[in-house]
Specification:
alpha/beta; Rossmann fold; Glycerate kinase, domain 2; 2 domains; 5-stranded parallel β-sheet; glycerate kinase activity; EC 2.7.1.31; Glycerate_kinase_RE-like; kinase
Length: 368
């Protein structure tokens, strides 16, 4: 029996990964009736990571936590056995804000979700850091776990990155003691340090709405945070990934977390490696297949994993800007885009599912 593994990422802003996979599977079955089609939606550690885990058999656990500017939001995490998967974008994501708040946005809710998972018995926390709204150095996350950020008078600082310029001391007396016995794994493709021209504020602050003067203020705030932490004997500001998610990686490094590429973590969570043996074809994809895809994003990770096993990989996308040579080098046997069959860009954005079915049926005829 012909076997196809369908492992796409989301088409950002138009279709979640699970619906992308379902549309592709429908087209394949129409083009090759009787084929065994395994749907395995993926993510790269950012938004969609929890959904990918749930599609792979994890339980979704609803929770209420503090949103990007401290307001309560209904969110949740994924859990299976001792492992909990927490997605920063689902509680402190930039897309959750009606307008950016670069100086005051917080990761408080991430720490609250971590504590909720610990309360439920988790001993392994996997954190996806993409899509952050905040540049608070992960201090909100630490607060959610019981730490306090204090000024020189012993008063607790307001939430957000800007207030850290007045940080005098971090009180860890209330930090959740269970963290000593918990494995922390960070899914992130960012290798930036906390500070400097390649750091959290300089590189990612503008993406979160920070003006040049805001970036200068946030850089000063993060530098003060690093000084206070360094005085306690911990110096992880230069750890690759410390600058991830506005410095959230830094706080997690302080807690002893390990870092791995997002797609590698998601492939492990979804069990994709176990689905590949015996496959005749793998289909992956995302909204835009471009140079960014080749820098560790989901489809590139899928292509690499399949190529190692000698399985051809086809990518489906909303659009593709990669030439045939770049595709071959990345391990793709071919790529198809919605705008190949539908010149109306608006329709590609508003009705991607039926177009994906048509492309998948074409792939079935040409590759199976």
């Amino acid at each position: 029996m012909t076997r196809v593994v369908v492992a796409p990422d989301k088409f950002k802003g138009t279709l979640p990964a699970a619906q992308v996979a379902a549309a592709i599977a429908a087209g394949l079955r129409r083009g090759r009736p009787g084929a065994e089609v395994l749907e395995c939606p993926i993510a790269d550690g950012g938004d969609g990571t929890v959904a990918a885990a749930v599609a792979a058999g994890f339980e979704f656990v609803p929770a209420r936590a503090s949103g990007p500017v401290g307001e309560p939001v209904d969110t949740g995490y994924a859990r299976r056995g001792p492992t909990a998967v927490i997605e920063l974008a689902a509680v402190s994501g930039l897309a959750m804000l009606p307008s950016p708040a670069p100086l005051t946005a917080t990761t408080l809710g991430v720490g609250e979700l971590m504590r909720a998972a610990l309360d439920a018995g988790a001993t392994r926390l996997v954190l996806g850091l993409g899509g952050s709204s905040s540049t608070d150095g992960g201090t909100g996350l630490l607060r959610g776990l019981g730490a306090r950020m204090l000024d020189s008078a012993g008063a607790e600082l307001p939430l957000g990155g800007a207030a850290l310029t007045r940080l005098a001391r971090i009180d860890l007396d209330g930090l959740d003691a269970r963290l000593r016995d918990v494995e922390l794994l960070v899914a992130s493709d960012v290798d930036n340090p906390l500070l400097g021209p390649h750091g959290a504020a300089a590189v990612y602050g503008p993406q979160k709405g920070a003006t040049p003067s805001d970036v200068e203020l946030l850089e000063s705030a993060l530098r003060r945070l690093a000084e206070v932490v360094r005085a306690s004997g911990v110096d992880v500001a230069e750890v690759p990934g410390a600058g991830a998610a506005g410095g959230t990686g830094y706080a997690l490094a302080v807690l002893g977390a390990s870092f791995r590429p997002g797609i590698d973590v998601v492939l492990e969570l979804t069990g994709l490696a176990e689905k590949l043996p015996g496959a005749d074809l793998v289909i992956t994809g995302e909204g835009s297949l471009d140079e960014q895809t080749l820098r560790g994003k989901g489809p590139a990770g899928i292509a690499s994993a399949a190529a190692e096993r000698g399985i051809p990989v086809v990518a489906l996308a909303g659009r593709s800007t990669l030439d045939a040579g770049a595709l071959r080098t990345a391990g793709f046997s071919g790529a198809y885009a919605l705008n190949d069959i539908e010149p109306d860009v608006q329709r590609c954005l508003t009705e991607p599912a039926p177009l994906l079915e048509r492309l998948a049926e074409r792939v079935a005829h040409e590759y199976l």
